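Hi R.,

Here's the input for the flavin mononucleotide complex you asked about:
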Amino acid sequence: MLDEQSPAGADANDKARADVRALRSRIAAADPATLDLLLRDARTHYGWSDRPVTDDQLRALVDLTKWGPTSMNQQPARFVFVRSPEAKAHLAPAVFEANRPKMQSAPVTAIIAYDTRFHDLLPDLFPPNPKARDLFEDNDALREANAFRNGSMQGAYFLIAARALGLDTGPMSGFDNAAVDAAFLSDTTWRSNFLCNIGYGDEEKIFHRLPRLGFEDVAHVV
Ligand SMILES: Cc1cc2nc3c(=O)[nH]c(=O)nc-3n(C[C@H](O)[C@H](O)[C@H](O)COP(=O)(O)O)c2cc1C
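And here is the predicted structure with flavin mononucleotide in place:
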């Protein structure tokens, strides 16, 4: 990262500030249709059409997800896209029986994982604090909490990004994490968080919307 004091750093900061001003003048808030697409009318899907999801779409999905903020710019989320029949068969035993047909009918099932050694990249990702890597290297509990918290946040960005790109999603935590880790992540420092089916949902397989808690139930202003 460029230092504020260096001429190049000052230029970069000026550009960042101009970019925010330009964004604000271009768009103040999402239009109602976008809010419907992303959240209000979007549904979780359990059945899938045959329409495939391309590599370009998966790349666009990860490229959009990455802009969501994480603590100290950690970016611990990692993604394995399970698509081939062989890979799906490899995943199947780890998925709870009720979820297996949902996974098997989806064009792609993403393993949303997090890297337990995310901190090795912090010298590049968060240069303002040169001690950041050591802070996590010396503290297993802090490392795990940060990887899981920020990896989960990136998992949520992933769901919203997929909807923004016109894809449907079906997240699932009903599976054996250790079995998925053994089957797909054994040579890595990654651990599975949740699975997410991706594709074009079959609306015949959804049910009525379940209630959501309102402001009075979940919030107060102090
Ligand atoms: C992290 C996560 C895990 C989930 N796990 C499962 C699951 O194992 N099986 C399943 O059928 N649905 C699962 N769901 C789906 C939820 O039940 C569903 O998203 C919720 O009821 C809201 O549905 P809606 O988006 O259609 O309103 C999961 C959702 C999330 C976000």
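One thing worth noting: The chain has ten helices and four strands.

Cheers,
M.
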